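Researcher: Batch entry, complex prediction.
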Amino acid sequence: MSITPLMPVYPRCGVRPVRGEHCHLIGEDGTRYLDFASGIAVNLLGHSHEGLIGAIQKQAATLMHVSNLYGSPQGEELAQWLVDKTFGDTVFFTNSGAEAVECAIKTARAFHQNAGDAGDKGRFEIITFHNAFHGRTMATISASNQEKMHHGFSPLLAGFKYAPFDDLEAAKALIGPQTAGILVEPIQGEGGIRPASQEFMAGLRALCDEHGLMLILDEVQCGVARTGKLYAYEHYGITPDILATAKGIGGGFPLGACIATEHAARGMTFGTHGSTYGGNPLAMAAGMAVMQAVANDDFLGEVADKGERLRARLEQFIGNYPELFELVRGKGLMLGIKMKMESRPFYVHLRDNHQLLTVAAGDNTIRIIPPLVIGDAEMDEFFDKLSAGAASFKVPEAA
Ligand SMILES: *Cc1c(COP(=O)(O)O)cnc(C)c1O
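Model: Structure tokens for the complex:
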């Protein structure tokens, strides 16, 4: 037998973490890494955060799981918190980002198809954008135009049309009598930390209003305080109809949510959707601990402030290596360095030779997505490692 016990869908690297301490990971062999990847924008509070550990331990010892057949005081508390702090009126809890996006897609379709005479039953298409990432389920790979995720999985789910990102006219041209909604990441994550422009986001909102479409935001990566606002839509002065959130919301515990307005959720009636684990008491305890830590003006202000300082230093830094780096982009502590070449080799070099963890992304970008609790010491260590990494980097021969 040559297949590995872990299904070999990830090309796993030699970093083998066994312990986390605040903003560092410690490998099996004792190597210490500075973690500016945060489990891909998940560990907002870093590793071994006492409040989060305490909340999970306490809930685990009290009640971990019951089914959604019963009333949920724990779910009501977190849902109310999200309703109070966002555009939304109602929340469905999931265990992952892809499930949150699935629920968002179902909510948009049901808005048109499950509202009696009020709906337009012929509407099912969702417009999405080039290089988007929405997850790995059949619906969410179908929602992306990235062929590398489609290969081997035909047939895809019907009903998605793709426009270039940040191109309002192209999105407008795809709207037809079957269009149900528009799904977009306000800041593309996997696509290379590419923030949508103000005109684009405001324009999508206006198009949805004009045509009776659902504006669905995928904030799985950019949401939950990452950009210095609780959700990134707040930067744009617009609100969505439906929003998918996950990654950071559990601080490392698997949790996601689909948040919707009352109007948008009109098709999501009894029996239309469900999840066995979704919103179980243990997940709710983790979510509440994260929300209590991050959903306040002091914390959000600090993230914005740290993001500005990190960005300013990055911009100064890349000026020293004009042959390597093109620009810095992003918001808050969701930053990307666009390189003048493929970014993966530099990401590997930082990881293997300088014990600095970042994440490679599309469009030649290195993602800088540290825990939101970094301080000056971690920022200084980051620049020490990054500078050493840039100085010692040998650009691979073009293949
Ligand atoms: C990670 C991600 C997802 C998928 O989340 P999973 O928890 O891996 O299912 C969806 N959308 C965006 C924008 C993401 O970054």
